[in-house]
TrEMBL record:
This is Ferritin-like domain-containing protein. It comes from Dawidia cretensis. It comes from the Bacteria. It holds the Pfam family Ferritin_2.
Length: 261
């Protein structure tokens, strides 16, 4: 068994593997301690270490996918209702929202299919109130309000996927999540353009969108590097990176639009 070759193969896939376990030296030490006579236990030790780093059971992966499904339910219902609202969307913009709506419906069906293939029960579709109990009472009669909420949901979706992607590292489901994430980012950019905004987020500017959507987007530190220290303005530093949202932060944003069961 060529352990060096095995480790090199793992490193080529994930250079940060030892941050997820302990470190290369200690892992080799654990393997060496079993001795030649106990070589049969090497796969068990290696597997145990990697399971700690990447091991996500069916329930854990299913939880992340159901989380994504709930967000897709919300967006799917939002655009479906928006397209049905008479006179809401200008005729020269309907084709855009029809296409986005098709994407969201496809995302819902795709996630349902993935969960089914995993034999995981999908979360039930909630009932939505896009007026948020009257806070956005004109959402189905004011195109400006509709666009504002569209931007809120799309930008939230992008950050929400990013916030849980790390939980899918080493799982086939990560590819599925990233495929949806990139499309949601395109939606977000398009909606921002329709509101005469830049296609990217600058600091924590909201322009009418709930402030929670952009919480944390004003940071200029990435890892241990202050981007402004490299000669960039604060605006440029915040535009160049999107920050993740935690599940609690996403719930605080989406919660008002979900009718309690």
């Amino acid at each position: 068994m060529n352990l060096s070759r095995i480790f090199k193969a793992i490193e080529s896939v994930d250079p940060e593997v030892y941050e997820r376990t302990s470190n290369r030296r200690s892992l080799f030490g654990n393997l060496a301690s079993v001795g030649v006579k106990a070589a049969a236990t090497v796969p068990l030790i290696l597997g145990s270490s990697l399971k700690k780093a990447y091991g996500k059971g069916k329930a854990s992966v299913g939880d992340v996918l159901n989380y994504a499904l709930t967000l897709e339910y919300l967006e799917d219902a939002f655009y479906e209702q928006g397209l049905m609202a008479e006179g809401l969307i200008p005729e020269n913009r309907r084709v855009i929202f029809q296409q986005i709506s098709k994407h969201e419906s496809a995302h819902v069906q795709f996630l349902l299919g993935v969960l089914d293939s995993m034999d995981v029960t999908p979360v039930s579709k909630p009932e939505f109130d896009f007026t948020a109990n009257g806070e956005y009472a004109t959402v189905w009669s004011s195109y400006a309000v509709f666009l504002t909420l569209s931007q809120a949901f799309e930008d939230t979706g992008v950050r929400a996927y990013k916030g849980r992607a790390q939980e899918l590292v080493g799982q086939a489901a990560l590819t599925a999540a990233l495929q949806i994430h990139s499309v949601e980012a395109r939606h977000a950019s398009m909606i921002r353009r329709l509101r005469a905004e830049k296609g990217w987020i600058t600091s924590a500017e909201t322009n009418g969108v709930p402030t929670a959507v952009y919480a944390g987007e004003d940071v200029t530190m990435q890892g241990t590097v202050d981007i402004t220290g490299l000669g960039y303005t604060t605006a440029a530093a915040t535009q160049a990176f999107d920050e993740p949202l935690t599940p609690d932060q996403v719930l605080a944003i989406a919660g008002p639009f979900i009718v309690a069961s």
